[in-house]
Write a structure and sequence with these properties.
Blueprint lengths: L2 E4 L2 E10 L11 H15 L7 E7 L10 H8 L7 E5 L5 H15 L4 E9 L16 E10 L5 E7 L7 E2 L29 E2 L1 H22 L9 E4 L4 H11 L20 H5 L7 E9 L3 E9 L8 E2 L14
Parallel strand pairs: 2-13, 3-4, 3-5, 10-11
Antiparallel strand pairs: 1-7, 2-6, 5-6, 7-12, 8-9, 11-12
Helix pairs in contact: 4-5
Length: about 325
């Protein structure tokens, strides 16, 4: 059963970065935004980088198919050579999964600190003429975890692989090995099936609207949480109406639900960090993420005062890295 309880790991800092113009510039990647967020976090918190035991990068828009973008980030951030570095191909549930993996790694390593980076440049997956282009946004988040006695962190995650095709980009990997030209990815009916972003939004959201309330209630029982226990509900910014339906079915009051649909599009794994970016006092957070996979999950944790840094905007990119958006 994928329920996790950690009481010896502290969320010491969270920093997020977005492009200046909402969409990343042509040569800017998710790792560039992650680098900016991580640099801001490590410098603001005056972290000794030699104490970092790992860097995990959760993304579905990496710099390359190989090597892992986390290894490039390890170099750019000047982390130790014995620092564990790897990528994980996840999008919307990146925050939940990253938190769980980071806490688990700290429990298994002799390091005292670790860095989790979550980010996606969704705009590079969808043609600008596609209506979905404005549904998704670009952002990245860096999370600093430290091994020390702290308020509990509870996490639970789920996946349902039989519905993997509800959100899928077939091109760019090796399931199809025919040589093809490069096109903008698109969900439009006129797009080729290989390069088409296949997104069955209705099917995905119908499943989550029916499934999440009961799983959320069960999660709260496991984590000893009551409806009145939480200061903030931070839900994936994918569908406002569905989020309201979920909390209503779970028994919550609408006033507890945080929302920033007016300011940001759906920024995948950074949606939840962007929701809590304005919180500067101690709060108990109930986070819920859901998306492609299908995958979904919950996290129950406390934010201490000054844990979340102000949001930064940047168009900087790694000029030394060769970048291509061809598939």
């Amino acid at each position: 059963m994928s329920f996790y309880h950690f009481n010896n790991v502290k969320i010491s800092g969270i920093a997020s970065a977005i492009p200046k113009q909402a969409r990343s510039v042509d040569l800017q990647t998710a790792s560039d935004l992650g680098y900016a967020a991580a640099t801001n976090l490590l410098e603001t918190k005056s972290i000794d980088r030699t104490q970092l035991g790992f860097i995990i990068f959760l993304t579905k828009t990496p710099d390359y198919r190989s090597p892992a973008s986390a290894i490039v980030l390890q170099h750019r951030l000047q982390l130790p050579k014995d620092c564990l570095a790897y990528d994980i191909n996840l999008g919307a549930v990146g925050f939940i999964a990253g938190l769980q993996l980071g806490c688990s790694l700290l429990n298994g390593l002799n390091a005292t600190k670790g860095l989790v980076i979550i980010g996606d440049t969704n705009s590079k997956q969808i043609a600008e003429k596609d209506p979905l282009f404005y549904h998704f946004g670009d952002a990245a988040t860096a999370i600093l975890l430290e091994k020390e006695k702290a308020t509990p962190i509870h996490i639970q995650s789920f996946s349902r692989g039989d519905a993997y095709e509800t959100y899928i980009i077939p091109g760019g990997a090796f399931r199809t090995n025919e040589k093809r030209e490069s096109y903008d990815l698109s969900s439009l009916p006129t797009a080729g099936t290989f390069n088409q972003l296949n997104y069955d939004k209705q099917r995905m959201h119908q499943f989550f609207a029916e499934k999440i309330p009961s799983d959320l209630t069960d999660f709260m029982v496991k984590s000893n949480g009551q409806i009145s226990s939480y200061d903030v509900l931070a839900f994936q910014q994918s569908n406002a109406e569905m989020n309201l339906e979920i909390i209503k079915n779970a028994g919550f009051d609408q006033s507890q639900l945080q929302s920033n649909f007016k300011n940001f599009a759906d920024c995948s794994g950074s949606s939840i960090p962007l929701l809590i970016s304005g919180i500067n006092e101690k709060k108990r957070i109930l986070a819920c993420a859901y998306g492609e996979g299908l995958s979904w999950g919950f996290a129950d944790f406390y934010l201490e005062e000054n844990t979340v840094l102000p949001l930064i905007e940047t168009d900087d990119y790694f000029a030394e890295g060769f970048v291509t958006h061809e598939i």
